Amino acid sequence: xxxxxxxxxxxxxxxxxxxxxxxxxxxxxxxxxxxxxxxxxxxxxxxxxxxxxxxxxxxxxxxxxxxxxxxxxxxxxxxxxxxxxxxxxxxxxxxxxxxxxxxxxxxxxxxxxxxxxxxxxxxxxxxxxxxxxxxxxxxxxxxxxxxxxxxxxxxxxxxxxxxxxxxxxxxxxxxxxxxxxxxxxxxxxxxxxxxxxxxxxxxxxxxxxxxxxxxxxxxxxxxxxxxxxxxxxxxxxxxxxxxxxxxxxxxxxxxxxxxxxxxxxxxxxxxxxxxxxxxxxxxxxxxxxxxxxxxxxxxxxxxxxxxxxxxxxxxxxxxxxxxxxxxxxxxxxxxxxxxxxxxxxxxxxxxxxxxxxxxxxxxxxxxxxxxxxxxxxxxxxxxxxxxxxxxxxxxxxxxxxxxxxxxxxxxxxxxxxxxxxxxxxxxxxxxxxxxxxxxxxxxxxxxxxxxxxxxxxxxxxxxxxxxxxxxxxxxxxxxxxxxxxxxxxxxxxxxxxxxxxxxxxxxxxxxxxxxxxxxxxxxxxxxxxxxxxxxxxxxxxxxxxxxxxxxxxxx
Length: 555
Hints:
Layout (H helix, E strand, L loop, with lengths): L15 H6 L3 H9 L26 H10 L4 H16 L8 E4 L3 H15 L9 E5 L27 H9 L2 E6 L16 E2 L3 E2 L15 H8 L5 E6 L5 H6 L3 E4 L19 E6 L2 H11 L33 E4 L8 H16 L3 E3 L11 H23 L8 H10 L1 H4 L6 H7 L7 H26 L3 E5 L21 H6 L3 E9 L2 E8 L5 H15 L18
Parallel strand pairs: 2-3, 2-6, 9-10, 9-11
Antiparallel strand pairs: 1-3, 4-5, 6-8, 7-8, 7-12, 11-13, 12-13
Helix pairs in contact: 2-4, 4-5, 11-14, 11-15
């Protein structure tokens, strides 16, 4: 993957080299010392390790090759990422994407280095630093809060199932990432990327631009090379949207492919964790480390026999040749510059041998959004109570009603910018046996699946659908909230079907992504297509941390 040259910047632009060179060993020590529970017992290595700039755009494959050859160790890699977090996330442009560092990260890395020497690596994730969104449970010295001060002090009984899978694979849990508080379900007037606990995360391409949500910190940390890969979660757009506006790859899996046990919920119908990475290959490698059938999450039973042990096997050359891809024009037209980027995408797809069916009409688009909202309101109240019951007495709140009361009592920290009107609506909903809920749930399934994705793909014998993921990032506005103008996440999200976004181009230096989505359990096929497009274009470029958009360049 190539890097474009850094564009010319004005005299007042942030100096990348300046903040990358500051506080390497000292920065690591500072992060460790400030971690909850006090400093790590393991000292920072004095042996030369991985340089901060050396980690820019590095892949899992390159990291594994470095560890195999002895050039790197897991410890030196962790130290290198901690250096970048100190220099870029905590100071310099102060992205604020990482909400908490795992104080045990270096100890874990040391143990994995010894294991590699004695037994060999467990697999492609052995020794690889991974960041987790702060709504994913870990049983360690880190908190799990969904960005809310209401959950500070809660201690889950076990690791989330996906965390257990990552630990088995040998990954190093490096820390937790900031997010749109409560995964952006608290208020319709929220500012994405902000949480009461973590503050505001900033877009690394233009610091005054929004990161989108809710997996904001995960996307920014990956884009800024603060980790190898990260895990986000999505209910509707929360993986693919921040991935798009931060110039990375994001995979929203079929609901049930990755367990939700130990993930602070919104909707058991639509919630799913998924990988976020700089390349399709790395996203595929992480996905393989996340999947698994979990007895506590009934939705994963449907994935038995459908998941793939190694999704990197789908990374085949020429994968676009002969693929039939439907162009969902209903998701175009919200911005002419995005349409220009998409025209280029379609030309590449055709050049690489894909057969485009353009347009494909999905008449149900726009007809199930109100039902989706109803389902979310009902399930939020029910599912959050179930999660808090699992956490038990360590949580200072035990229900959505308690969270609402906490926010009211802490308005100066929790509701300084926006309120909790969605929470209030959800609290007023009845049980999941309610006719309103059951009708809305049935409508969502029929309109998004049978009469939506499945119908159009069967009619045209399609391998996938394609559409722009999202607009370029808008200016962050704490007064008037987000300025969302268009995107394509809702159809696959409501269906519970997979989607993958890949960098497609730039508008005034701001990333724009393209989404490939399709039937349930077709992650491998979508990865093949996304990889084919990525390899034909390689448009991703690392961020420059400009204070604002450079309007002198359209791309």
